[in-house]
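Q: I'm a student working through a structural biology exercise. My instructor gave each of us a protein and asked us to get a predicted structure, then write a short paragraph describing it. Mine is DMT family protein. I'm not confident about reading structure output yet, so if you can add a plain explanation after the C-alpha cells, that would really help. Here is the sequence I was given:
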Amino acid sequence: MKGFFTVGLLILSNIFMTLAWYGHLKFKELKWFENLGLIAVILISWGLALFEYFFQVPANKIGYKENGGPFTLLQLKVIQEVITLVVFTVFMLLFFKGETFRWNHAVGFVFLILAVYFIFKK
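A: Happy to help. First, here is the predicted structure for DMT family protein. I'll explain a few features afterward.
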C-alpha cells in the first residue's frame, strides 16, 4: 500500500514540476499572462514548484525503506525519473501540438523500462 501511495504522490509532484518548468512556455497564449516579465514568470513557476515539494517530500519519506517504505533510495530515484518522463510526454502531447513523439522516443522509453527492471532486480 505504501508503494502505491508513494507512486501516487510522485505523480502529483511531477505534474506540478512539469507545470512549473514548462507550463510558463504557454503563458503567452493566456490573456492574463501575455505581458508578464521574466521575474513574474519565475515567481509563478516557483509557486507551482512549492506544490511539487508538498508531494515529493512525503513521497520519499513514506516510500524510503529506512522509514518503513518498500523502496531503496536508488529505486525511488528511478521511479521518479520514469514518472517525470511519462508526465512530461503526456503534457507535451496535450499542450504543445507542434512537438512530436517519434519512434526513437519510444525506444528510449523501452530502455527506461529496462532500467527500472534492472534496478529492481534482486
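A: Here are two points you could use in your paragraph. The chain has four helices and no strands. Residues 2-120 form one domain. It's a good idea to check both against the output above yourself.
Q: Great, thank you!
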